Amino acid sequence: MPNDRMTRLTTILLLIFTFAAHLTEVLAFPAYGSLAGLSEEELAMFIPTLEIRKGPPPDIHAKPDNIGVPVLVNDADHPYVPPGPDDIRGPCPGLNTLANHGYLPHDGVASPKQIVDAVMTGFNMGADIAALVAYAAHLGDGNLLTDKLSIGGARDGSRGLNYHGTFEGDVSMTRGDAFFGDNYSFNETLFQKMQAEADPIFDTFNIRSAATHRFKRINDGIKGNPKFAFNHIRYPAGYAESVFTYLLFRHPWTPLPAVKMDVIRTLFEDGKMPDGFHRAPLPIGMLEIAAEVVALWGQYPIVLPGHNVDGIDTYRIDWTSPSLITWCWIYGDYIENTVLKLYPNPTGALRTALKRNLVFFHLPFGEVGCPPLFPYGPPLSEAEGLIDQAEVKGVVDQTQAPVSSGWYSGYSGRVWDALVRTMTCWA
């Protein structure tokens, strides 16, 4: 009899501890913790604890004040304040810098709209490309219900921009690959590789420097990382981050875009704008990025999207992956290979939030002629990001289509048409 009582007591204590552990997990789930990839059970546990916030749409035609002249952005209103022990920083030097200077919340948690406004005001990134990048990151790594995104990770393991394989990827400019452990800290060895490609006379990083460094970093991945992947969104993003370096951080008074290496070190290592730092005089948007990416890729045009298939030095071209400026292909591929895989069967408020954010994600792509795609059904209310019905005229209604891999196969079959349309838009 005593043994039976002891057994029952042990069982009760285990149940109490298990319940307490689950309760602690729920209470500890941060507002910026991504819901991407969670099971239905986890979603049912976490969603009721969140305060739902409907984020405002981005204005992809917005421009900062004083267009056409360099503007001091390391000013008295935006002094450098280093991150504290509880502040989040991540793999993107630009976002780290904007948080350290108060253009983004100092804790490193922001809404996608705040990110769009910050990169536009701080670096004069065009609102269209800013919205594309911010909402791609948000759909992959943010919390769509609270409208919050971590620009890095968190000590509790919550998903943010540090998370490998959705938005962050291999062969960064100055960050290591996730396979080797640290994909977010400044890497001195990689910076020295950048330094080796700088103009030897002016000590600047320009298109030639960026093209060579990008090509060598890809080869680093092929020959050193058995899990190396450079396809899907990472392929165009990898080239875009190379041109961002010398376009966004350039010296504003030079005729050709180039950035001093000491400026790169200050921004990339310390997350700090140098004294007297001015943003570029003109917005750098999708068309400017597209033209520059093609020019940069053209110096080493032998690299196509792909991945190592069986250890190091087994790189195979991925013919299903979009290329560089095929905007419509990039758009559809990201929905198919990222969003739908992370959210295969959303319901309720989460489905509504996905539909709303997909409307915002489409806005910059709509500017270059890409029709909107509705994997979870078209938006039917303001809460779902209702758009002008003229925009959806003639688009295949996906309301009845199963939300599973392959749903947009008819769209992906028109990739060459998308390529021609894109080339026509930016040429």
Main attributes of the structure:
427 residues, mainly alpha, 3-stranded antiparallel beta sheet, two-stranded antiparallel sheet, 44% helix
3D structure, described in words:
This protein has 427 residues and is mostly helical. Helix content is 44%, strand content 5%. It is built from 15 helices and 9 strands. It has helices at residues 2-28, 40-46, 93-100, 112-123, 127-141, 188-196, 207-224, 234-248, 261-270, 286-297, 327-342, 348-366, 389-392, 409-412, 415-426; strands spanning 71-72, 109-110, 149-150, 204-205, 229-230, 259-260, 278-279, 306-308, 315-317. It has a 3-stranded antiparallel sheet. A two-stranded antiparallel ribbon has the order 1-7. β8 and β9 form a beta hairpin. α5 (127-141) packs antiparallel against α12 (348-366) and α8 packs across α10 (286-297). It is globular. The relative contact order is 0.11.
How would you characterize the largest beta sheet? 3 strands, antiparallel
Q: Return Rg in Å.
A: 23 Å
Regarding quaternary structure, what we see is single chain
What integer is the average pLDDT? 85
What's the short story on this structure?
This protein is mainly α. The protein is 44% helix and 5% strand.
Give the topology, please.
Elements: H1 2-28, H2 40-46, E1 71-72, H3 93-100, E2 109-110, H4 112-123, H5 127-141, E3 149-150, H6 188-196, E4 204-205, H7 207-224, E5 229-230, H8 234-248, E6 259-260, H9 261-270, E7 278-279, H10 286-297, E8 306-308, E9 315-317, H11 327-342, H12 348-366, H13 389-392, H14 409-412, H15 415-426
Antiparallel strand pairs: 1-7, 2-3, 4-6, 5-8, 8-9
